[in-house]
């Protein structure tokens, strides 16, 4: 049992615009420098460094830990917890930890620099690099990284493949990589490691992958989201609203989440002005079957223009009841706010809270 007292602070300003939530409950997991189980009372807060070794606080001296990936799996979530003592907060070698939603202890199932949970959540693809992946710098074009799948008990369930560094997703066919320098996407056969041809635009950048779909975006005169069906090879396009574009970071890929049906996808977009400066961020929901796009209710979050200020950020994740949970975080100010949307009506919000989570997931919703 770990108890972390919250420091006293002045009233926190709301980050989300909506109506107060009444009576809603869902087990949510939030990760950053700490790990929160936000749906429990009292709220459970555990330092990420403790989870790093499967609930063991005996870390080597000088090591730090950061939860940089969370993914729902049957019975809980899988977290990638980076060792940030190297100075990298994403893509650093770390532990892959299965965290049950019930009272069972967390357990380390692999070591990796990147992970991708396969459809259904029964397999977790892991990739281990020897050198830093900071936006691909210092990584030769010919570099190959050991990549394989494990189950939730940590047992390897695939051959060890040697694939280009840049694991971003996993499909029924196998893992998907994105070249850290060129941004090119490639699907690989999970049994023999051979490339699988996909019908993608040449300038496609990864957004998300489902059981039989790969979602990417490309920008020509306008930006569009491309929905590629892996079973038929067909491609459908959803035009993005004018002045709204995907986040500029090419790696890691922008946060995106499928609903339990695998049809609706939530993802953030940035609003840019005529000079190309990002001024705001909002969450959108795309229906991959109908090709329609909706904006989640509420005012967009204003993005600070100062290059030394970390912008307020948004992330979304569906729970098993089909509610879209929204996380807004203000890293520089050290607080966050949660809300949820049922797909109709306003966004329903909870009071802001102290802490700096950067990602969220609902256990077992994948």
Structural class: mainly beta
How much strand? 35-45%
Overall helicity: under 10%
Tell me, briefly, the overall form.
globular
Entry summary:
Helix content is 1%, strand content 43%. With 366 residues, the chain is mostly beta strands.
Describe what this molecule looks like in 3D.
The protein is mainly beta. It has a single domain (26-361), classed as Methylamine Dehydrogenase, Chain H (7 Propeller), CATH 2.130.10.10. It has 1 helix and 32 strands. It has one helix spanning 48-51, and strands at residues 19-20, 29-31, 34-37, 44-47, 65-73, 76-83, 94-100, 107-112, 114-117, 124-127, 144-150, 161-164, 167-170, 175-178, 185-188, 195-196, 205-209, 213-219, 223-229, 235-239, 244-245, 257-258, 264-272, 278-287, 292-295, 301-302, 313-318, 324-330, 335-341, 348-349, 353-354, 359-361. The strands form 7 sheets. Strands 1, 27, 28, 29, 30 and 31 form a 6-stranded mixed sheet that branches.
